[in-house]
Amino acid sequence: MANEPLILTVDTTQADRLFGRLVARGSDLTGLMAQLGEDLTESSQVRFDTGIGPDGIAWEALADGSGRTPLNDTHRMRDGIHPQSGPDWVEIRADAKQARWHQEGTDPYEIRPTEKKALAWPGGPGPRGVVHHPGLPARPFMGFSADDEAATERLVIAWLELGGGG
């Protein structure tokens, strides 16, 4: 007996079952993608209240010196952010035509009347044939912040958690 090897036989039934559940859980991520879309949409919308971009940098203040948070008067742009998702993808969309201008900023540009001969607005300098706009500073509201990254990691771990009901 002293010369016989000691043999330990490992039963992999439980590991096989758990890996099978993991593979099954990871094969259709529809629910995970939908939740991730909702979370990232909410994160993007909160930036309109804080005035802080996903990079952690505060948005440039409004030129009028009012102290108001930029892009927050009507909430149309914030409320126009929506998620779309599928079994293995998610995207966040901003429907407002101005969204890209505010996200990325613009160079200076001219505004010309399209239906009238001149432009005028309350409190403005009077009718103008052309207005030279100084451009818009970038005020990014969509993106993946450090907090978003950490929340996504927690969500994915919870989604793949094998200890729960699966």
Number of helices: 5
The level of helicity is 25-40%
- Reading side by side through the largest sheet, how are the strands ordered? 1-2
Low-confidence stretches: none
* Main beta-sheet annotation: 2 strands, antiparallel
First CA to last CA: what distance?
47 Å
**DSSP summary, beta strand count:** 4
Principal-axis shape: elongated
- Report the radius of gyration as a whole number of Å: 26 Å
One letter per element, helices H and strands E, the order comes to: HHHEEHEEH
Strand content: 5-15%
Class by helix and strand content?
alpha+beta
What does the average pLDDT come to? 89
Structure description:
By secondary structure, this protein is an alpha+beta fold. The chain contains five helices and four strands. It has a two-stranded antiparallel sheet. The chain has a two-stranded antiparallel ribbon with strand order 3-4. The longest helix has 21 residues, at 30-50. The chain is elongated. The mean pLDDT is 89.
